[in-house]
Specification:
CATH class of the largest domain: Alpha Beta
Largest sheet: 8 strands, mixed
Structural class: alpha/beta
Helix content: 55-70%
Oligomer: single chain
């Protein structure tokens, strides 16, 4: 084949590929339109938003279709899992809009310029709330944005506090001295620093509870995400806070305020500490992250991805999570002891001790689905 011929053939194939890509986009768009129609019918007739059996049927069918056509079934399933997640995100967001729980109501997000504050503001806005933002980092406009939360209108229906723990405690203390009918809640990662202020607010008659969204500000779909709620003396406030998530796929879990920080010691404290130790050790290993990523394993890639995300988080927030949790010391001691057991088993050439560590971990994790 002459040079001119193969170049023309290459161009024709690329043009055809562009056409296939365009068709894929058009089909994905049509799929999303069908998803919206299905979501509206589900909403109207009270059907659950997510059907795991139906998802499995779709994915099994996709795998069979891929195999029959010579396409890698893993690639096909991964593609459709992403499409399903996008579909669920669209249905969840549309269900929130259709519910219109916030119609005619106003919400004030204190700390609304922070990352979780912005997420919370967008979440409430999606339900139809007229959202006001109060944050020292914003410029007051006298109507919807305020540098000082005290300058915001008092006649709001929801007050959400998305500020650092010390500031959140101060806000709660001031609100306890005022008269408001609003639902008041914080979203702090720890609760013991807020406990006295939360209970004082409840004792003062405020409709107050505590909330902890167990996900980051980049989250769109709440399916399989947990939202923790704590009663601090006003059960009705917990019900009201739950209603904000009623049209989402989030798992709502009610726990005791005192229990929260004990559970967060391993869930947040230990997991963050492991990532910090991991990337600190890597930084001292003498090989660049790029160099390691070029020859890494599946396990390393997963750990590197988590560690990279942690390294990009707010260090002040992560220090609060480590330093202000009174249960954290026990967890850090357990981490040190576990590392020491690992080191001793290797340095003592004790394969049996090493196997016991692995067996104990396998037994502990065996109940996970």
């Amino acid at each position: 084949m002459e040079q001119g011929e193969w170049k023309a053939r290459l161009k024709a194939l690329r043009d055809e590929l562009d056409g296939v890509d365009t068709a894929l986009i058009e089909l994905a768009t049509r799929r999303q339109q069908l998803v919206s129609d299905i979501g509206r019918i589900k909403k109207r007739y009270g059907e659950q938003l997510r059907d795991f059996r139906r998802e499995r049927e779709v994915l099994d069918g996709v795998r069979r279709a891929a195999e029959s056509r010579g396409l890698d079934p893993e690639l096909a399933e991964d593609l459709f899992q992403r499409l399903i997640e996008a579909s669920l995100t669209r249905q969840e967001q549309e269900r929130l809009r259709l519910g219109r729980h916030g119609d005619g109501r106003r919400a004030l997000v204190i700390g609304g310029s922070g990352r979780m504050g912005r997420w919370l503001a967008a979440f409430l806005d999606g339900q139809g709330f007229d959202v006001l933002i109060a944050d020292p980092a914003t410029t007051s406009d006298g109507s919807s944005r305020f540098t000082d939360w005290r300058d915001a209108p008092a006649d709001v229906d929801v007050i959400a506090i998305a500020a650092p723990l010390a500031i959140s405690a101060e806000v709660l203390a001031e609100l306890a001295q005022q008269s408001t009918d609003a639902l008041v809640f914080d979203i702090g990662s720890l609760k013991s620093p807020l406990g006295p202020a939360l209970r004082a607010a409840a004792d003062a008659g405020l409709r107050v509870c505590s909330v902890h969204p167990m996900f980051g500000p980049d989250t769109q779909l709440l399916s399989e995400k947990h939202v923790l709620l704590m009663d601090v003396g006003n059960a009705e406030a917990v019900v009201a806070a739950k209603s904000l998530f009623a049209d989402t796929l989030a798992e709502l879990v009610t726990i005791g305020l005192e229990e929260h920080d004990r559970l967060m010691a391993p869930v947040l404290g230990l997991s963050h500490a492991l990532s910090i130790v991991f990337f600190t050790a890597l930084a001292d290993c003498g090989v660049s992250a790029t160099g390691l990523s070029q020859l890494s394993s599946t396990t390393f890639d997963r750990q590197l991805s988590i560690a990279r995300a942690v390294a990009c988080e707010n260090p002040d927030l992560y220090f609060e999570i480590q330093s202000l949790n009174r249960h954290g010391g026990t967890m850090r001691q357990a981490l040190l002891a576990a590392v020491q057991l690992l080191i001793e088993s290797i340095e003592n050439d004790d394969s049996e001790a090493f196997r016991q560590l692995m067996a104990r971990g396998k037994a502990y994790l065996s109940d996970l689905k």
